[in-house]
Structures are given as structure tokens and as C-alpha cells.
Amino acid sequence: MAVNSVEVRHVTKRFTLRHTRSLKEMAVWKSRGRDTTNIFLALDDVALNIKQGEAVGLLGWNGSGKSTLLKLISGVMRPDKGSIGVRGRVAGLIEVGAGFHPDLTGRENVYLNGATLGMSRQQIDRLFDDIVDFSGVSRFLDTEVKFYSSGMFFRLAFAVAVHTEPDVFLVDEILAVGDEPFQRIAVARIQELCKEGRTLIMVSHDLPMVENICRRGIVLREGHLSQDTDITSAIRLLRETDRA
Amino acid sequence: MNVTSTEAQGPTDVLPMREPGIGGGLFDVARWRFLLMLLVRKELRVRYRGSVLGIMWSYVKPLVQFLVFYVALGVFLQLNKGTPAYAVYLFSGIVGINFFNEIFGNATRSIVLNADFVKKIYLPRELFPVSMIWVALVHLVPQIIILMGGALLYGWRPGPLNLLAGLVALIIVAVLALGLGLLFSAVNVLFRDAENIVDLFLMVGTWASPVLYTWTMVYKAFPRWLWLLYQCNPLTPAVELMHYCFWYPATDQSSVALAKAIPPHLPWWALLSVFTSVVALGVGQFVFARLQGRFAQEL
Fold first, then answer.
1. pLDDT tens-digit readout, A43-55
2. Residue B95 counted as domain residue
3. Could A103 and B45 be called an inter-chain contact, meaning their C-beta atoms sit closer than 8 Å?
């Protein structure tokens, strides 16, 4: 059986919500005996392993800690307790167009974004035409990105991300932006990446789509790992805990 | 993330397990130089967007600054008379201090201004302050060319030692500014007061080193211990080295004694300054590394 691609070892992540920043406010709060900090436990002792080539859906309602977990896996944030191990290069669409600058042209942004996702110049040169073809915005390549429609922007950003050849691919709630034809292409491309043996971790509230792409489902509830099972049962269990 | 090794290896090979979000600090920057270059280009593009003069502004600004100081201090306060080739003296100091101010000021704001990158993708965050050195270098080159042109008009004939002094001066300035920039850019994420404190530093910096006046004036006015303290400011020897490079070889050296033009034991003061700057870089990197785990959640 394949080796672990991602190991989450009893990870805890706390956020300190500071209510105030200025000296004056701080003095006023302190003098009234109010606590100026508020600790929020985003992830509480979460442990899980993901094998190489697995496609995993992270499920949970808002505020359950899904996005925090993805950020910890990508290295953007560090856990307060526990540790994380990742094999190979992680890339992701944690937020669309991270590393896109509105004042640069589409072409420049492909290079900038590719480089931020860890690609070398040779790699981008080699894949440039594929990226542009995939995005379908070739006509506007030398236009500044600020003039792009949100759909065009998304398509280009997505195209760069899926061509970065990562070992672990993180997707957070991003497929909702594109139109339906593009969503179909995007899903097909993600499935292709999975077939190539890359590991996928996906967060989305579009449950049918998650069910379509992923095999394993992990349900998070208020920072705890609540279920870890196949995707269909995970979605059913999630729906049973419907808060409404 | 090793960019070069992933290309050779497919996802089917077993790669070593590593912890995400931990980098080698400044040592990682070398591996990411392609991105560094793109960030520098982005910074320059963004700074001069929609501007007709564009990069020409980097000529205009120091020139105006020079004229203002020259008229006010050289002509009105008559520093012109005591110091031969005062224009070259003044401008060589201004170029050095501008280089410092630009790196330090921009580096301090670099993390907050690049919040989009910092929050969303893991990169060695040192890239942002470091990129400011290259941006400042792009602006430094035209100033150095103007400075050399001006010095040549006064008959500048530098020897290898003079040129070496200029190079050392710029290296001191860059290392010190990067060290302080790393420190304050990290603190600035938690407390935006940092950038205002830095603005204060920069304002004082021009006056706390012998840019506008000569060291002999400080020497006469200060008690000895205070003068020694003044010399401990790492920018002071750097500015004097700039003078030794561009100004002193442009003066009529028979009329200006070296002992009077350049403070005593300058090589030793310069060495101390190199040491201080390297310490500042070490401290800056240490604090930056400690605080950067909190960047994404604080921005």
C-alpha cells in the first residue's frame, strides 16, 4: 500500500482574538477589568493520515476548522501543538488568485503566480502554452488583470494552479466561481491529477461535487475530527448533524 | 520546497517527509531567486504604474533633494566655503543615506503590503524585505552615475582603495538596512506603530551621520564620549567611506590634508560598523523567524 503523503499528528490550533490594538483602548479595557483577548480553538487535537494518491474531502459546516487545517498543511500557518508532515511539494488553490497582482498583465501573472507556487522558470516556459490554452483567455494575455472579469481571472488562476505538478494538491472552495462548462473542465482536470497519483485534499460546500471527486470523507465539527469514512457515508453523517 | 528536485521526480517516487512552513530563512532566498526577480520587477512596475516619467523619477527626486540642501546649507549657511567641493561631499552622503532609507523604509512595509501572498501561500517571507534591496539598487545606479559625473567635474581621480571604500560603504548600508528591515517588518505585522517609528529613524538618520556637515564640527561641539558614541552609529563610517570614495579624490589633495578630511582610524570604525551591521542582520533574521509563524493569522 502507498506511503503516507500527509500526516497530521495531534494538531491543535488556537486563535487569539485581540479586541483592541491601540494603547488608549487597551488602557480603557484594562481599567474596566475586561479581558482584552479571547481564545478560540479552531482545531483541537486532530490526527489523521492521508495516503499518497488519495482524494479526500474535508467536510464540515462553517467554522468547523476545515480551512485552518488546509492552511496548516500548506505551511501558511503553524500548529500550536502537534506537528504536520508532508511528502513532496504542496500547492493549492487555497484562495483563488493568491499571488495575482491586478496591475500586471495576464502573462506576467502566470509567471509570478507559477513562481510563488514553486515552479521554476523552465517549468513555466514549458507549460505556458498549456496553461493559456486551458484558461481560454489567450486573447487578453497582455491585458492587465484588473480589467479581467471575475470568471476570466478565476480561469487563469485555476489554470496555473493545476499545472504546477504538485505532489499534494489542496483545493478550498474555489470551483464555485467558474461557469458550468469551465467547472466541468476543472473537475475533469482534478480527476486527471488524482489518476496521476497526486494526493488531493478538497474543501467545498458543493457536496455532490465532492462526492463525485473524492473517495474518502473526513467530517470536522467545531475543531474536532468527528468522522473519517468513505465519502458517501461522510456526507450522509454530515447532513444528519444539520444544525438548522 | 525544492523547485529543482521535483522536476526530476514524479509523484510516484517516495519523497522525504518534511514539515510545511519551516524554511531556512535568508538561506532559502537563493533557491527562490527566480521569484525574487519577479517580485522586484512587480514592485518596480507597480510603483511607476500610470506614470509618464516612470523610472526617471529616481533621477528627479535626489536631484531636487540635493539642490535644496545645497542652497540651504552650502550657500545660506556657507558650508560651501569651509569644505572644498561641498557639492560632491553633500551628494555622496545623500546617495548613501538614500540607499539606506529606501531599503529600510520599504522593507519595513513589505510584509504588510504583500499580505495577499503571506496569507495564502507559503514562501520564505524573507523574500519580500530582500527584494527591496534590489529595488533600491535599481534606483541607486543612476544616482551613482550622476555622482561620478559631478565628481569628475571636480577632477575625481579615485585609486583602488577609494573604490573599495565605496563598495564597503554600500555593503554596510545594505546589510544594516536589511537587518533592521527584517526586524521592523515582522514587528509591523503585530503593531503598525513600527512603520511610524521607522519613519522617525529615517528622519533622524540623515542628521545623525556626517551627510550635511563634516565630522570636525561634531568633534569640536561634542565631549569626547559623545563623539565616540556618534562614531559607533554604523552609518557614520559608511558615510565617511562614501566621502573617501567620491569626495576626497575629487578635492585638491594638496590643500586638504587627509587627516582633516577623514576622521582618525576610519578603517577600524568601518570594521566595527561591518560588525554591527552583521549583528543587526542576525538579530533581524532571528526575530523575523520567531514571529513569522504568526504572520498569516495577524494580517
1. 999 999 999 889 9
2. yes
3. yes
In whole angstroms, give the CA distance from residue A223 to residue A43.
4
CB nearest to B122's CB, from A52, A75, A88: A75
What's the domain range around B273? 22-298
Per-residue pLDDT band for A76 (boundaries 50, 70, 90) equals confident
pLDDT for position A176: 65
Q: Which long-range contacts (CB under 8 A, 24 or more apart) does B81-87 make?
A: B82/B214, B83/B214, B84/B251, B84/B252, B84/B255, B84/B256, B85/B151, B85/B154, B85/B247, B85/B250, B85/B251, B87/B150
Pairing outcome for strands A4-18 and A81-87? antiparallel
Q: Partners of A171 in the beta sheet?
A: A93, A202
Split into its structural domains, chain A has a count of 1
Domain residues for the domain of A137 are 4-240
Q: At what angle do helices A150-162 and A106-116 cross, to 10 degrees?
A: 40
Question: Hey, is B151 helix, strand or coil?
Answer: helix
Tell me, yes or no, whether B107 lies in a domain: yes
CATH number at residue A99: 3.40.50.300
Q: CA B269, CA A138: separation in Å to the nearest integer? A: 58
Min Cα–Cα distance to chain A from B121, Å = 6
pLDDT at A21 over 80: no
Out of A74, A112, A197, whose CB is closest to B38? A112
CA distance A77 to A16: 14
Does residue B16 form part of some domain?
Answer: no
In this structure, the strands spanning A90-93 and A224-230 are unpaired
For the record, the C-alpha cell of A176 comes out as 464555485
ipTM over 0.90: no
**Element of type H or E holding B215:** helix B215-221
What are A124's three cell numbers?
Answer: 513555466
Q: What pLDDT, on a 0 to 100 scale, did the predictor assign at position B16?
A: 80
How many domains does chain B fold into? 1
The residue of chain B nearest to residue A92, with distances taken between CA atoms, is B121
Q: A2 vs A53, A54, A183, A212, B78, CA distance in Å?
A: 8, 9, 30, 22, 80
C-alpha cell at B185: 517588518
The DSSP element (H or E) to which B17 belongs, if any, is strand B17-18
Q: Is B123 inside any structural domain?
A: yes
Three-state SS across chain A?
CCCEEEEEEEEEEEEEEECCCCHHHHHHHHHCCCCCEEEEEEEEEEEEEEECCCEEEEECCCCCCHHHHHHHHHCCCCCCEEEEEEECCEEEECCCCCCCCCCCEHHHHHHHHHHHCCCCHHHHHHHHHHHHHHHCCHHHCCCEHHHCCHHHHHHHHHHHHHCCCCCEEEEECCCCCCCHHHHHHHHHHHHHHHHCCCEEEEECCCHHHHHHHCCEEEEEECCEEEEEEEHHHHHHHHHHCCCC
Q: Which three cell numbers stand for residue B133?
A: 534591496
Q: Do B121 and A74 touch (CB under 8 A)?
A: yes
Question: Which chain A residues have a beta carbon less than 8 Å from that of B10?
Answer: 197
Say what the pLDDT of residue A2 is.
75
